[in-house]
């Protein structure tokens, strides 16, 4: 093998390793960004949940209970929650949020959208989201599916056996 051939193989090998390194770096960077988004939005979620009046916090996930009386504090907490959800939805739709993270958040979001509390509040908060029609449609589709979710929640599920 001549020196020129050896140099060509070495150059090719170096290019392959460089490309592999770049691909790994991009993959690691995306994972780090998703972790940062997850941490930041989890913190914001906790802050919003701490602002919810206690009775509203309980009713948010109860698909069968009557919602508590409407108050300004409760409506504001629901607005903040829905705004956070719209941001998460945007990040997911634009590809800034991994599908895995979105699935975690979406399961709770869909259940929350189906609650009588959020359905009642949505009627007066809907206009706040007019500038983001994709999210508005997402919420309304989720609320149209609410009866199916309520049926699933009310079904008796046997406890897991140890």
Written overview of the protein:
- This protein is mainly α and 162 residues long.
- The protein has one domain.
- The chain has helices at residues 3-51, 54-59, 72-93, 99-113, 116-125, 133-144, 146-154.
- Mean pLDDT is 84; it is low at 154-162.
List keywords for this structure.
mainly alpha; 7 helices; 162 residues
What is the total number of structural domains? Answer: 1
Assign the structural class, choosing from mainly alpha, mainly beta, alpha/beta, alpha+beta, or little secondary structure: mainly alpha
State mean pLDDT (0 to 100 scale). 84
Strand share of the residues?
Answer: under 5%
Percent of residues in helices: over 70%
Secondary structure tally, helices: 7
- Poorly predicted spans: 154-162
Tell me the overall shape: elongated
Give a short account of the largest sheet.
none
Q: Write down the Rg.
A: 23 Å
Q: How would you spell out the order of helices and strands?
A: HHHHHHH
Distance between the termini: 66 Å
Number of strands: 0
Brief summary:
With 162 residues, the chain is mainly alpha-helical. The protein has seven helices and no strands.
Please render the helix and strand layout as text:
Elements: H1 3-51, H2 54-59, H3 72-93, H4 99-113, H5 116-125, H6 133-144, H7 146-154
Helix pairs in contact: 1-3, 3-4
């Amino acid at each position: 093998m001549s020196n020129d051939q050896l140099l060509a193989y070495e150059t090719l090998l170096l290019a392959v390793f460089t490309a592999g390194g770049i691909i790994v770096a991009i993959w690691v960077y995306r994972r780090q960004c998703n972790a940062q988004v997850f941490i930041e939005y989890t913190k914001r979620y906790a802050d919003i949940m701490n602002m919810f009046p206690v009775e509203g916090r309980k009713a948010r996930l109860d698909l069968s209970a009557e919602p508590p009386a409407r108050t300004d504090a409760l409506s504001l907490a629901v607005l903040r929650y829905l705004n956070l959800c719209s941001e998460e939805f945007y990040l997911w739709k634009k590809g800034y949020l991994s599908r895995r993270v979105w699935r975690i958040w979406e399961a709770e979001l869909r259940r929350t959208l189906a609650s009588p509390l959020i359905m009642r509040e949505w009627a007066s908060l809907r206009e706040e989201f007019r500038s983001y029609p994709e999210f508005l449609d997402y919420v309304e589709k989720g609320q149209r599916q609410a009866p199916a979710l309520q049926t699933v929640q009310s079904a008796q599920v046997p406890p897991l056996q140890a």
